[in-house]
Specification:
3-stranded parallel beta sheet; Rossmann fold; alpha/beta; 6-stranded parallel beta sheet; single chain
Length: 296
């Protein structure tokens, strides 16, 4: 067996096309373009790349955007005051503070300072709490993107054993909640594994659906999964590769070559989950502009 590829680039393009059309319809109805305010603190090269991808996607779908660049010496109070101004600015529909933050700033405090109605990343406790109890909320973009992939490829989840490796608040926890909810894509029996899990293989080899978001290259290998498993690899890691011009390759948390021989479906890295994260950010920003989640 060799796995079928879950093509995130293809599904992302379809999702962005839908958002573009919805934005056009929204504006033709007499509304202004949705507006996303990005806040970038410091000069982290990886953050620059991610923000660049998000702003390009905004332009592609007709969402207006601006990136506010702040020094990495900014105090927590100054940053909170800046975010409060954006919260009170009716022309700003969505606010995205790019993570990670400088070490002297608390990501929890910064996320909580964002108006949950403008939290298009889906990280605010209000949105996470509403997600947990099945109420409308902005969903964290990567888990939401994973569910778009499962839906597009008609991959069943009801009654399946879903194992999530990684328990972060950004991916692992929310995707485990979504998988277990009483929704059309959900109703799975869900196990969460993390760095303290003993005998990881005991859990991964029983998975019908395996979501790996641990940030450890090639953590999951072929002998750790069963025949027919659906594998969603969220990891994106740089590993040295002298055969590449850049000197590195991008790989996932799964050893692709060995896992794909046993999986029925698998996401590649790159080109799997990553493009979906950006597409769902576009979708959330449009929902924020329409006030679809939190009507006035």
């Amino acid at each position: 067996m060799s796995a079928k590829i879950i093509d995130g680039k293809k599904v992302s393009a379809l999702t962005r096309d839908e958002v573009r059309q919805d934005v056009e319809d929204w504006m033709e109805a007499g509304n202004r373009a949705p507006f996303l305010q990005v806040v970038l603190i410091g000069n982290d090269p990886a953050s620059d790349v991610y923000v660049g991808a998000k702003t390009r996607a905004c332009k592609e779908v007709g969402i207006e955007t601006d990136t506010m660049r702040l020094p990495d010496t900014i105090s927590a109070k100054e940053l909170k005051n800046t975010i409060n101004k954006l919260n009170n600015d009716d022309s700003v529909d969505g606010i995205l503070v790019q993570l990670p933050l400088p070490t002297h700033l608390s990501s929890h405090d910064v996320i909580e300072s964002i108006d949950y109605r403008k939290d298009v990343d889906g990280f605010h406790p209000m949105n996470v709490g509403r997600l947990t109890v099945g109420q409308p909320s902005f969903q964290s973009c990567t888990p939401a993107g994973i569910f778009e992939l499962l839906k597009h490829y008609s991959i069943p989840t009801k009654g399946k054993h879903a194992v999530v490796v990684g328990a972060s608040n950004i991916v692992g926890r929310p995707v485990s909640i979504l998988l277990s909810r009483e929704e059309s894509i959900g109703k799975a029996t869900t196990t969460i594994c993390h760095k303290y899990t003993k005998d990881l293989t005991q859990h991964t080899i029983s998975a019908d659906i395996l979501v790996v978001a641990a940030g450890q290259p090639s953590l999951i290998r072929g002998e750790m999964v069963k025949e027919g498993v659906v594998v969603i690899d969220v990891g994106i890691n740089r590993v040295a590769d002298e055969n590449k011009d850049k000197g590195y390759s991008l790989v996932g948390d799964c050893h692709f070559e060995s896992v794909k021989e046993k999986a029925s479906w698998i996401t590649p890295v790159p080109g799997g989950v990553g493009p979906m994260t950006v597409a769902m950010l576009m979708k959330n920003t449009l929902l924020a502009a329409k006030k679809s989640i939190y009507p006035e």
